[in-house]
Amino acid sequence: MKTTQAHTILAIITTDKEKVGGGIPIFYANSFEELERKALYLARILMAAIHSMGDGTYIIVKH
What we know:
Elements: E1 8-14, E2 26-28, H1 32-46, E3 49-52, E4 57-62
Parallel strand pairs: 1-2
Antiparallel strand pairs: 1-4, 3-4
């Protein structure tokens, strides 16, 4: 029997180092443009979805 884990946060991308922490890979961006670009590239590489947290932070989630 095959089991899979659903809805897993794979990465966090943020412009503010004070907002996030933990055991998930965190990528920092210096601008909004860099934030969007890194989120897009990571989502494509990981075949996952981008979700905005609305405060300069995106999460990459595998559904």
